[in-house]
Specification:
The chain is of the alpha+beta class. Helix content is about 40%, strand content about 25%. It contains 8 helices and 11 strands. Helix 1 packs antiparallel against helix 2. It is globular. The model is unreliable at about 50-60, about 70-80 and about 315-325 (pLDDT under 50). GO terms for molecular function: diguanylate cyclase activity.
Length: about 325
């Protein structure tokens, strides 16, 4: 590696320490890794372990849930790294190294440990020994920053992104649609607020267990391109991307039924849901208010219901145009 490249690596280490979000941190790391001579592809993933299904008989039997970074709109992508990921999740103890179980060697970053989600970065290509040492050195900086940013961005119980992260991400989604107006409704994003009905247990053991089960159902029930947050108390937020109104209704209704049929430790649980379309002509706080008013309508009705607030689209007062399901 040349002196110039070495200086770039030191500069990147300093820049990684300055990143204020996991998204920016990982995006900058990927950009640098792709610039290294011999690197053909860089892919990053978040790995979640879901709550054991009823009747599995133990903590060791868990579903592995994978989210690709950066988030992609096409959920049916052909993931050629699936076999490598499965083996790394099962066999790797974390760290950085070569994986030689595939057709071509893969360099991996595996940020494993007590925290969730687990992060794995796969680097395909043939790099020099010097470049590999630089890649190895950056892993320590990256993994330490992931831990620090997780403490800031994620809810400590459910490991979902927290309220502060939701505010920032929603603003980014609104800004995206300011720059690129969707040509058709199937390219829209939707903001949904979900609340556990009649919850009065959030601070005891049963309450925490229920929140963990709900968060696991969220991770399993939505696509890798959708964004999940713990909003406040028993409330959660989902930003459903790249679909139309029928698509988001189908996803939310499926989740509502999954919750209603799930064997929670505290007994039967239901959720109410309010949602609205992400309209770039309105600020993030107004979109949250619109979805929250729809949620209020759902909870003051029969509960265990889904309500769509279309008021912003027609520029009416927030509850002038509400549809109930």
């Amino acid at each position: 590696m040349s002196t110039e490249d070495l200086q770039k690596a030191f500069q990147l280490s300093a820049e990684l320490l300055q990143n204020q979000s996991y998204h920016d941190l990982t995006q900058n790391l990927i950009s640098f890794l792709r610039s290294i001579e011999g690197v053909d592809e860089v892919s990053a993933y978040e790995i979640f372990s879901a709550t054991p299904a009823a009747g599995t008989g133990g903590e060791n039997q868990r579903d592995t849930l994978v989210r690709r970074f950066p988030l992609i709109s096409n959920d049916d992508f052909d993931n050629q790294n699936a076999d490598v990921l499965r083996k790394l999740v099962a066999e790797s103890q974390g760290g950085v190294g070569y994986w030689v179980g595939s057709v071509a060697p893969v360099i991996y970053y595996d940020v494993a440990g007590a925290m969730e989600p687990r992060r794995i970065v796969l680097i395909k290509g043939a790099v020099s020994a010097h470049d590999f040492e630089v890649i190895r050195g950056l892993f320590g900086v990256y993994s330490n920053q992931v831990a620090l940013l997780d403490a800031r961005e994620r809810d400590p119980l459910t490991r979902l992104l927290n309220r502060d992260s939701m505010d920032r991400v929603l603003e980014q989604v609104v800004d995206f649609y300011h720059l690129k107006q969707p040509e058709k409704e199937t390219q829209s994003s939707w903001l949904a607020l979900l609340d556990i009905d009649h919850a009065s247990f959030s601070h005891d053991d049963d309450g925490e267990e229920t929140l963990l089960h709900v968060s696991a159902l969220l991770k399993k029930g939505f696509r890798s391109s959708d964004l999940l947050f713990r909003f406040d108390g028993e409330e959660f937020v989902v930003i459903v991307n790249q679909t139309d109104k029928d698509g988001v209704e189908t996803s939310l209704e499926r989740f509502r039924k999954d919750v209603a049929s799930h064997p929670f430790p505290a007994g039967k649980i239901n959720v109410s849901i309010g949602f609205t379309r992400v309209d770039p002509d309105y600020s993030a706080p107004l979109l949250i208010e619109s979805a929250d008013q729809a949620l209020y309508q759902a909870k003051t009705g029969a509960s265990n219901a889904i309500v769509y607030n279309d008021a912003l689209r027609h520029k009416q007062s927030p509850m002038d145009d509400v549809e109930c399901y």
